[in-house]
Amino acid sequence: ASMWTGYYHGMEHLGWGEAMVGHNLQYKMLHEVAVTPELLSRYKVIILPQMTLIDEPCRKAIETYVREGGTLVVTGETGMLDERGRPRPDFLLGELMNVRFVEMLHAPFDVAHRDETFTYAPDRMFYQYGARMLHVAIRDPKRSRVLVRFHRNSEAYSGVIESEYGKGKVYTVAAYFGVSNFELDLREGSKPLFKT
Question: Could you tell me if 93 and 62 are in contact, meaning their C-beta atoms sit under 8 angstroms apart?
Answer without folding.
Answer: yes
